[in-house]
What we know:
alpha/beta; globular; 15 helices; about 15% strand; Amidase signature (AS) enzymes; two-stranded antiparallel sheet; eleven-stranded mixed sheet
Amino acid sequence: MNLEDLTLTQVSDLLAAKELSPVEYTQNVIRQIHDKWDLNAVVTLDEELALCNAAQSEKRYLDGTARSPLEGVPVAVKDIIDTKDLVTTYGCQAYAAYQPKEDAFVIKRLKQAGVNVSIKCNTSQFALGPTGEGSFAGVVKNARNPAYTTGGSSSGSASAVAGRLVPGALGTDSGGSIRVPSSICGTVGIKPTFSLVSNQGVMPVSETVDCIGPITRTVEDGAMILQAIAGYNMRDWRSAPVCKTDYSARLGEGVEGTQAVVVTNLFEGPVMPEVSQGAMHAVAVLRELGTETREARMREVSDLRKAHQLSMLAMAYTFHRNDIAAHREDIYDEVYERLSSGKIPLEDCLEYEMRKNEMRGILCDLMGDADCLVYPTTPLTACKIGESRKPVQVNGTETCAFTANGALTWAASYACMPCISLPVAFTQEGLPVGLSLLGKPFDEQNLIRIAKRLQDALALPV
Length: 462
């Protein structure tokens, strides 16, 4: 049995049955990280802390006091999430030795669940990069093929999971930063409803859209991590006091009678044929499983995409003004330019914020009484490292990975709605294709049910 091939759920089951030692498993994770260090997915690994945490979990298993199904499982953390026991760099040289004084709320939740928090993953600087190429720690390589990009900004988290360095990781998402690298690396990424998971202790991009969510190899694994991190935080205005939900409760259900809306124009235009074909095959599988589908077209929303971008960057610029003043030499020109584009009049920022409800209305009208909207996660698969701005012709339209990566993911963020990306195909080059399922606010349990059934039916290697 190769321990690195085990899914998070399998690890959890073996630990609970005392057929696997947390120490033994953690030692294997450490070996995997060292063996694949060249992926540049991990920026911080505290081996002493990892083994200490594992020993404590092993004692709790022996004592019968394990705190949750995640007890003793190492979960890596994107490096814009504060960890008081580990350096948090935010992808910027100015913070290369920064030690937060307090854990982020989600880290406290993970520790309460017995998770082994001892690994930090590379991130695009300040979480402002769609390709995974802009971090002071260097370019993150795609575990599927190290010559290719990962997507961003949760680049290290997705590559570490896809490469079997860790069984699961946390990412963050403001316009696609969980789903884009999940699509491009071939992992499952869950962007929850805004406010389901508290953002306290996470460097913001935009405090009105930022989300924290899991990146895993299976939908079931993602549900387990979401279970641990979701919860009300009264100190965080962005945290909603929603009823406690078991996100794994409906994993065994089928999808007969489920209704999905296929957003047909998101399969068209500058979308690679292999992406459209892979996504449409997944739709066909959903139909075979009993899902009722109908087709609809989303109206032209380029004005709203601009509103999302500028609103998000205005928030980011406001937060990073001190960084720009104190650490300009450590901020990449590309990141500085994006931040500077957020210097917009206050009235424009407020207008863009108010238009979020317009985007939600469009998505809700499209969905109607259905359970979810279905469309490709990214219009392109991974590009080669260094070619993210290289123009490519797709169906007669010129595009490039840098602008295309988030072309289909931003709307769910702007509307603050939940969305899952899961791998549904591989191209002839072996590059993953992702499909998005966008659901109703706080309907993650239902969305997870559909995604799990689809992933099982596709039976792709994870």
